Amino acid sequence: MIILTRGEIEALIDCDAAAKAIEAAYIATSLGHVDLPTVGHITFAYDADCHIKYGHMQGDETFVIKVATGFPQNNAKGLPIGNGLALVLSTKTGLVEAVLHDEMMLTDIRTGIGGAIASRTLARSNSRTALVIGTGPQARRQIEAHAALMPDLSFQVWGRDPVKVDSVIADMAPHIDVNPASDLETATRSADIVVTATGSKSPIVKSAWVQPGTHVTAVGADAPGKQELDVALVARADIVSVDLASQCLNHGEISHAAREGLIKADSLRQIGAVLNGATHGRDGEDQITLTDLTGIAAQDIAMANTILAAWKTQVQ
Question: Which residues are catalytic?
């Protein structure tokens, strides 16, 4: 059995390879080639929770079970907010073939890459400015992934706490130039791409702020009760894409608008279907496009397969 620690996993990550694998996973999902059972979700006190995502890609000799926890109160204790691991098991014997004790790093990275893929796919081709809303680990991953996949972008970051904003900027400084956004409305109005990466339970971005031609990637609403966008914005968007419609309608960003009858399930476009040309993406410079990503096990499978392939190459 292969057991890899966070440090060992981090040394094996290749962003380009991961992005290709996640794009393929999105496409496979849209084609119905991935068995994706309903997400397991446990909530605890102080907004803490645990997600259990698992699935099997057709043709793979393994399947993956991913456990990821989020305990916000750990911040005050000097402990990581997120943790977790991925188990890779054989479809032939049921035996555990690998334990990837990534401490949630792979989840964070695949979420960042998924967000950047969505932005690259649906934003205007001449997009140059990205506003990232949030100051936690995922905000950093979104900046890193967008910078890698869309190198022409410049970045602003906004958060309620200026100290945390400065921390994000300092962390990115060695490789990526990020500027602070002092006013959220002003920054939203001027951004080509808006990425929301918070744990908010009430709307942060108002519809009136988002200008024609803007693309919005929302990744924060990954559990029931979370919301980052004004429902009027979701209803107003010309194109709404999702990673998995059933999951997003259940607890994603778009679920709030759907429950109010502002959008319908048959209007949603899976990002995988846009990627493989089964449905079209943006076809107008003034369109507002929006992607709701709740994170799917197909991404976790893609990351696990990529890491194990890199490990096997290294040890041979």
Answer: 66
